[in-house]
Amino acid sequence: MRPTVVSFEWDYCYPSVLADRSPGVLGIDLLDPAELGLSPELIARLDAWRDRQETLSGAWIRIDPPVTDEEQSRGEQQQRELLTLAHDVQHELGPDVEVLLDGQPLKGRHRAWWPTVSGRRGP
Questions:
Q1: 3-state secondary structure at position 40
Q2: Under a CB-based contact definition with an 8 Å cutoff, are residues 34 and 59 in contact?
Q3: pTM, two decimal places
Q4: N- to C-terminal Cα separation, the chain
Q5: Rounded distance, CA 111 to CA 87, Å?
Q6: What is the pLDDT of residues 81-100, one digit of tens each?
Q7: Burial 3-21, CB ≥16 within 10 A → b, else e
Q8: How many angstroms separate the CA atoms of 42 and 85, rounded?
Q9: Pairing relationship of beta strands 104-105 and 29-30 according to DSSP bridges
Q10: Fewer CB within 10 Å of terminal CB in the chain, N or C?
């Protein structure tokens, strides 16, 4: 059955960043982007984002040395790319599927208003 609510969720070693949060779904039901019918190009971008996030997140959890300016910048780029990916997933899934980002509906969230890791607003 096709999900009615798809949420972007990430954690180490998750095979996908998409989870089924449709009413009645308990726990985390990770979704295979190919089974959702997403394009191969979008699937590749989702996978690349997940791989970069796993690498980058190690910089955020270490104590010494602190996160560098370059890592901070890459983190902000990751956040902007995540919003773009969410919009692209919404476009490919269509209006019958609600896409969530950070547990909130994507509808009404514009790329230009996405807050960056540093708290500044994106471009």
A1: helix
A2: no
A3: 0.80
A4: 38
A5: 9
A6: 999 999 999 999 999 999 99
A7: beebbbbeeeeeebbbbbb
A8: 8
A9: unpaired
A10: N
